Amino acid sequence: MDERKSFEKKELDEDDLERLLISLPPELQKLWREKVENLELEEAIRIMEDVLENRSRVKAKTFTRISNIKDPEIKKEVTDVAGIIENTFGDTDYRVGKGTVGEVYEMPYSSRICVKYLVDEDQRKKHGNTFREESALLEEMTGFVVESIRVPDSYFYTASENRVYFGMERIHGYTLEEMAIDPLDPKFATILEIVKKLDKEEVKRKIRAFLTRMHKEKKIVHRDVFTRNFMVDQGGNWFLIDFGKAREIEIGEDSDRREASDLMFADIAIGEFFSKIHYMEGVDKQ
Amino acid sequence: MIKYHHSTEEIMEIARYIQEAAENALKFDTVLKLPLRLAETDFYLAEANDQDILAHSSIQHGDKEYKIGTRREVNA
């Protein structure tokens, strides 16, 4: 028995640990290397096996590998949908937004769905979140509504050999930044008619309430609260978008400064927006 | 028009809360009225041959496979 144990111990070497580590996506490899580097080899391998097993369990539950779909009709549809998503990128007829990291397109098969495509990996690294992490944060926020403010529903994440992208609810509206640049543009008229009737301080209060509860209940800080990341739809509903820089507050972390920063930038964004739209009309209500 | 042939080895990961809503519906509802809206989103659980719903994924329940997808607005 002892001989066998000893034999098993001999079998474990640094290559085994390396093999486990390289099974992870690059961003996780670095994280787990740091976590296990000072542990005994056996303990490090045991931990890594647990991590990989948990990941495979999660993947098995949420992933559909298209080739595994048995029903030929469903398989064809999913393959076609994936192809449409892939090919819609670059079609300006469907483009609804463009940022430094990604571009957003409405899907030709449904005006209720849009897809965000990664276009600049270097910029994304500066923002911090991978697209999977961003879509996971959106998913975490789905259904969270405070003072009628919410985030777009998260629907799916997909990756091909060409690019990564995720699907979410298409908001039929505009960002505060877009509307502030040219508030007299007729395409903003319906929304601005609603927004101009709102009390600026009341809007600030509602957004502060949303962010505060997001911090406390969802344990998420947004870290990119600017006019470009608030949207208002044709019905006057407000949305916080783009969780590319957001992050979860870790247990025990002192996040007071980050939370305060979200609130401060929200106040500034709303103040700027209302000032601009009223100034452009010559009706500065301040 | 599909310009790019999508590899069948690629993956589609449906948001977990939608997937779980589908699993729960299949687990607990003895008589399912399909298509069934999932988690108050625009995603539905539907029969494999339901042409109104465009599949983004599938879910197996017993011997039967269902589609999870969104309403088809145009021929896709």
Describe the overall structure:
The complex is a heterodimer of chains A (286) and B (76). Helix content of chain A is 50%, strand content 17%. Chain A is α+β, with helices and mostly antiparallel strands and 286 residues long. In chain A, the strands form three sheets. A five-stranded antiparallel β-sheet of chain A has the order 2-3-4-6-5, with helices on both faces. Chain B is built from one helix and five strands; from the N terminus they run βαββββ. Chain B is globular. Chains A and B meet through strand 1, helix 5, strand 4 and strand 5 of A and strand 1, helix 1, strand 4 and strand 5 of B. Strand 5 of chain A pairs antiparallel with strand 1 of chain B.
Reported for the largest beta sheet of chain A, the result is: 5 strands, antiparallel
What percent of residues of chain B are in strands?
35-45%
Q: Approximately how much helix is present in the residues of chain A?
A: 40-55%
What number is the mean pLDDT of chain B?
A: 84
Order of helices and strands of chain B: EHEEEE
Number of domains of chain A: 3
**How many alpha or pi helices of chain A?**
11
Counted by DSSP, the helix tally of chain B is: 1
- Any idea what the radius of gyration of chain A is? 23 Å
Basic shape of chain B: globular
Oligomer: heterodimer
Strand content of chain A: 15-25%
Strand order of the largest sheet of chain B: 2-3-5-4
Secondary-structure content class of chain A: alpha+beta
Structure class of chain B: alpha+beta
Query: How many individual β-strands of chain A?
Result: 11
**Spatial gap, N to C terminus of chain A:** 83 Å
Largest interface: A-B, 45 and 41 residues
Q: What's the name of the CATH homologous superfamily of the largest domain in chain A?
A: Transferase(Phosphotransferase) domain 1
